[in-house]
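Problem 12. The chain below contains 206 residues. Write out its predicted structure in token notation.
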Amino acid sequence: MLDNNIEVEIRGLIGNSEYPNIIALLQKTAKFIERKERVFIDYSTFLEGEGIKERNRDIRIRCTNGIPEIMIKVGAWGDGENREEHSFKGTEGNFDELVQIFGILGYEKGVLCVRRAEVFEFKDVEISIIEVRNHSYYFEAEIMISSKRDKDKAILRLNGVLKELGLNKFSDAEFFKYVDKLNSEANEVFEYKNYKKGYFKKRFGI
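Solution.
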């Protein structure tokens, strides 16, 4: 495997009062990459044998800054996860078509999420500061590697960067508790049986 398609990622919560401070720190010390406006449907939560804690496949469709995409990650969620990543991007304005294709294929129920992210590069590590609107903030720190043999080295790098930035990562238990909290308080359940053509274009402009 020559391409860097294995994502090593660590996440953690950012307190509402801490958010402006970490943004200011990254604006001063890191390279700003982009702002991401994202809507996605996570189907794995409702797939038999997958769910939240047990999943080894992350199957979702998403739209980032207007571009629809199929995103599949293979591997377990959790601390220092390393998942093989596969994606396919469509053309702007076709997210509703993607929703219909997945519905026809049998992916009829998922978790609908809306996120905004400020993405930075700090010492070759991608740091995304993510806003769950009217709810909370969290970060994702990631490195892409080409072989799982490099996982431990990547995690050491990530942990060093987080320490330097003063960010605290989730334990597995904390992460799953946060996902449950988001699902009950901020995310929505999407059911294809209730879908009307053009819904995402009308609601989100995508």
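Discussion. The chain has five helices and nine strands. Students who got a different answer should revisit the alignment rule from Section 12.3.
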